[in-house]
Write a structure and sequence with these properties.
- This protein has one domain.
- The protein is an all-alpha fold and 146 residues long.
- It is built from seven helices and no strands.
- This is NADH dehydrogenase [ubiquinone] 1 alpha subcomplex subunit 6.
- Its main location: mitochondrion.
């Protein structure tokens, strides 16, 4: 149970100096999150629901969802690097808070399963549920579930 203490040591400094430093911090966060997976599996008893490799994939998918932040088209030219770094630092801070909450057991098991197992599409069991439903309901459920 030493993982919560090690996570607090990492911390996210308020500002990244450049994109290289922000990139390094994102990789450090990913490493810390992957190292905490065994602890998370034990705390929430997830062995029967998901494999550690699937949780690693879910974490990397969350990071990849924000890969567009470094796109120069999103920010005005004169503030491009500055705003980009602020957005990356903010997303990194939110990720650290989420990881700390999970490791400190501030969430319940169904939150983790709903957000990181079913929400990421790792468990696909909608085929038998959708029999006999209209196309409207199928589209509604796929767009408004997680």
């Amino acid at each position: 149970m030493a993982a919560p203490f090690t996570l607090r040591k990492i911390g996210v400094p308020p500002n990244s100096a450049n994109l290289t430093e922000a990139r390094r911090r994102v990789f450090d966060f990913f490493r810390a999150a992957c190292r905490s997976i065994p602890t998370i599996m034990d705390i929430y008893n997830l062995q029967d629901v998901v494999a550690p490799s699937q949780l690693r994939f879910a974490i990397s998918a969350q990071i990849r969802n924000n890969a567009h932040v470094t796109d120069p088209k999103l920010f005005p030219l004169e503030f491009n690097c500055h705003l980009c770094l602020k957005v990356i630092d903010l997303l990194l801070f939110k990720g650290m808070e989420e990881l700390t909450d999970i490791v400190d057991h501030a969430k319940q098991r169904h939150h983790i399963i709903g957000q990181y197992v079913v929400g990421e599409g790792l468990v696909q069991n909608t085929g038998s549920k959708d029999q006999g439903k209209s196309d409207f309901l199928k589209n509604f459920y796929t767009s408004n579930y997680f």
